[in-house]
Specification:
By secondary structure, the chain is an alpha+beta fold. It folds into 2 domains: 6-142, 2-Layer Sandwich (Fructose-1,6-Bisphosphatase, Chain A, domain 1), CATH 3.30.540; 151-262, D-Maltodextrin-Binding Protein, domain 2. The protein contains 8 helices and 13 strands. The chain has helices spanning 6-29, 36-61, 92-96, 168-179, 191-199, 213-225, 239-242, 250-262, and strands at 65-69, 73-75, 79-90, 103-110, 113-121, 126-131, 135-138, 141-142, 155-158, 184-186, 205-208, 229-231, 245-248. The strands form 2 sheets. An 8-stranded mixed sheet has the order 2-1-3-4-5-6-7-8, sandwiched between helices. Strand 9, helix 4 and strand 10 (184-186) form a beta-alpha-beta unit. Helix 1 packs antiparallel against helix 2, helix 4 (168-179) crosses helix 8 and helix 5 (191-199) runs parallel beside helix 6. The longest helix is centred in the N-terminal third of the chain and has 26 residues, at 36-61. The radius of gyration is 18 Å and the shape is globular.
């Protein structure tokens, strides 16, 4: 049995408490599909409720820490060295369409460095967690990135820009460069889980642009701690600064980055 640090326990408790409400709300979503506006409003309320729960739990456990989240933006804390980075519901569209592939994402940034992260899917109770220097885990199982070395046998994840969001023409060029050379490309609609699944070896790699810090903060540490290579989609060191990501194992990261550069 893995022993959680006090920090990880705080994060897990907050995620699970918010997750219980999301799981209940998710059970109701299928009944709302007849009304697009009604369902969207319902999901928005679930999102806000999840964020409020996480904010309250984390603030109670670590008073003074800053808080950066999707719905409320940046809240400065009295402790300037620590910031929680939170996405209370990643994969909102999946949630809206009653697809059980969504997650709560919580990361802690200390003096500019991500030191811990949680990605929790309440629909199936998958709890991915990581702490700098301690590895990455799915529940109690230690994670390692996939050992695959041949690019043409790899399966990669990505995100497709949607209406009014992102660079669709650029994405199509990148997809063309990658998809014709690999075993498969998947788009599952939750960046947090894409990264967690790379850490778990389910995907061989993942790339996406036009992301926010709360989408990827936990996952980039998770992949690193699982032995993967993390850059942005142009090869720069810090995806949090640029809002894009390219991750894979050491053998496949270079070839994936090369294909993305060829699309530029």
């Amino acid at each position: 049995m893995i022993t959680h640090s006090a920090l990880i326990k705080v994060m897990i408790d907050a995620a699970r408490k918010a997750g219980r409400a999301l799981a209940r709300d998710f059970g109701e979503v299928a009944e709302l599909q007849v009304s697009r506006k009604g369902a969207a409003d319902y999901v928005s309320a679930a999102d806000l409720k999840s964020e409020q729960t996480i904010f309250e739990e984390l603030s109670k456990a670590r008073p003074g820490y800053g808080f950066l989240a999707e719905e409320r933006g940046m809240i400065e804390g009295t402790d300037k060295t620590h910031t929680w980075i939170v996405d209370p519901l990643d994969g909102t569209t999946n949630f809206l369409h009653a697809m059980p592939h969504f997650a709560i994402n919580i990361a802690l940034q200390r003096e500019g460095q991500i030191v811990a992260g949680i990605t929790y899917n309440p629909a199936n109770a998958d709890l991915f967690w990581t702490e700098r220097g301690r590895g990455a885990y799915l529940n109690d199982r230690r994670l390692r990135v996939a050992a695959r070395t041949k690019f043409d046998e790899a399966v990669f994840a990505t995100g497709i820009p949607f209406l009014g969001h992102g660079q669709h023409a650029r994405f199509l060029k990148e997809l063309h460069q990658v998809s014709q050379r690999v075993s498969g490309v998947r788009r599952f609609g939750a960046a947090a889980l894409d990264l967690a699944w790379v850490a778990a070896g389910r995907f061989d790699g993942y790339w996406e642009r036009d992301l926010n810090a709360w989408d990827i903060a936990a996952g980039i540490l998770m992949v690193t701690e699982a032995g993967g290579v993390v850059t942005d989609a142009d090869g720069a060191a810090d995806p949090l600064l640029t809002g894009s990501v390219c991750v894979a194992n050491a053998e496949l990261h270079g070839p994936l980055l090369e294909r993305l550069r060829a699309a530029a």
